[in-house]
Amino acid sequence: MSRTIFCTFLQRDADGQDFQLYPGELGKRIFNEISKEAWSQWMAKQTMLINEKKLNTMNPDDRKMLEQEMIKFLFEGHDIHIDGYTPEK
């Protein structure tokens, strides 16, 4: 069963997540405010960040940096700047 939420990232109603994908209070906020579509956009950005910066998701510092970038991207309207990557217009 899909659930519809108002996605604060897309600024419209969209399919919500089926379950909480991220732990804690931030995870609850993502579950309630971020659609599947917005989350998949973030996952693509996160993959590019991990690859470009050679991050290790087992490293707490790298995870913290990814979380900060995620918050900026999903909730503060900042696109992720990746060296050598030009988004399609």
Architecture overview:
There is one protein chain. Strands 1-2 form a two-stranded antiparallel ribbon. The chain is globular, with a radius of gyration of 13 Å. The model has no long low-confidence stretch (mean pLDDT 92). The protein has helices at 24-33, 36-53, 60-75, and strands at residues 4-7, 12-15. The protein is built from three helices and two strands. With 89 residues, it is mainly alpha-helical. Could be a mediator in iron transactions between iron acquisition and iron-requiring processes, such as synthesis and/or repair of Fe-S clusters in biosynthetic enzymes. Necessary to maintain high levels of aconitase under oxidative stress. One of its GO terms (biological process) is cellular response to oxidative stress. This is Probable Fe(2+)-trafficking protein. Monomer.
CATH fold-level label: YggX-like
What is the CATH homology-level superfamily?
Fe(II) trafficking protein YggX
Major beta sheet summary: 2 strands, antiparallel
Structural class: mainly alpha
User: How many separate domains?
Assistant: 1
Through-space gap between termini: 34 Å
Order of helices and strands: EEHHH
* Silhouette: globular
How many β-strands, per DSSP?
2
Fraction of helical residues: 40-55%
Strand content: 5-15%
* Order of strands, widest sheet: 1-2
